[in-house]
Amino acid sequence: MLDSSIIERIRASMPSAELALADKMALIRAEYIETDLDDRLRDSIDAMLRTLIGRRAPEKNRRRDETLALVVVGEAGTGKTSSLDRMFRTHPTLGNYDILDSGCPVARIVVPAPCTLKALGVAILHALGYPLSRDLKEHTIWRRVHEALQTSGKIVLHLDEMHNLTDKANILELDAIRKSLKTLLVSHEWPVGLVISGLPSLVPAMREIDEVRRRGRFIRIPLLSMPTDSDLVDEALNRCCKIADIRVPDGFTEYAGSRLSHAGLQRYGIVVELIHEAIEAALLHRADTLDIAHFATAYTGRTGCGDRMNPFIAPDWPDIDATAVLVNEMPVEPVLPEDPKPRKRRARKSKA
């Protein structure tokens, strides 16, 4: 996190017009459009919290100290991290989320890349305010993780970008990961609820953990599908433009929505980012109405692609590879040679 004094020095040096634009864009980016995913996440966290407080019941009424796991996966840019972040921040019992000494019972760790189980343990300790002063063995680090979670009062642990740990792990490493996560869930001293998020590639590893598969909830964030999701895109567009005081032409989403979804790889988070960048382009040009050209400008600024590869300009935009960057022309289709004509088999001469 940037030091506030550094930010204030930068703000003091900015022209008033730039400062006003920065503040308005901050308001626009803070606007959050809820989806059905938010209800599913909230229901899952509520179920996890009910399980966690249930461990306070008298010993004779408890079967075992075992909690829930929530596994949320989606392609990069689908909005899983921002959805989880908002859910934690707005939950009535999880106030002051992400502030170490606030008493919030949730700890969030971004799993570094690349990562080992030992490195993850070190990262958790650091986030909980217990940095290591010397190198320790893996099992010792994870024993301290359990102690630190209890000491700091954290009952929910969010491991974001978890695929950074599981994708490159070998069989022995995966087994150690499973055992460590299992111990967190069923610890007799201090069981915690696990929220694990990342790319879909981490699902097979999570399903191999009996406690996660049996006591877990798996949520996959789908890609956008147009025109089915046009209402969602339209709401995001109109609410952001309202904050910017920019008009959206009638029928704009019907015309530009599919292009926008294609340019954003059908990923809601990227689509929202493109909306923000198009609005910023409109504000920079002092426009009072949003136009497709503003999206074209935003896309060029993001990818460096020429007009021929810009989905907001090119007539054959469905054929454009929206993952390409710094490309000006459509790739030339390879000319494949014609299949050779089959050779005629020579008839064998019969032996006399």
Classify the oligomer. Answer: single chain
Percentage of residues assigned to helices: 40-55%
Span of the ends, CA to CA: 94 Å
**Distinct helical segment count:** 14
Would you tell me the structural class of the helices and strands? alpha/beta
Overall body shape: globular
- Summed over residues and divided by their number, the pLDDT gives a mean of 89
- Please list the strands of the largest sheet in the order they lie side by side: 2-3-4-1-5
What is the beta-strand fraction? 5-15%
- Which radius of gyration do the C-alpha atoms yield? 26 Å
- Per DSSP E runs of 2 or more residues, the count of β-strands stands at 5
H/E element order: HHHEHEHHEHHEHHEHHHH
**Low-pLDDT regions:** none
**How many strands, which pairing sense, and closed or not: the largest β-sheet?**
5 strands, parallel
Put the structure in a nutshell.
The chain is an alpha/beta fold. It has 14 helices and 5 strands. It has a 5-stranded parallel sheet, with helices on both faces.
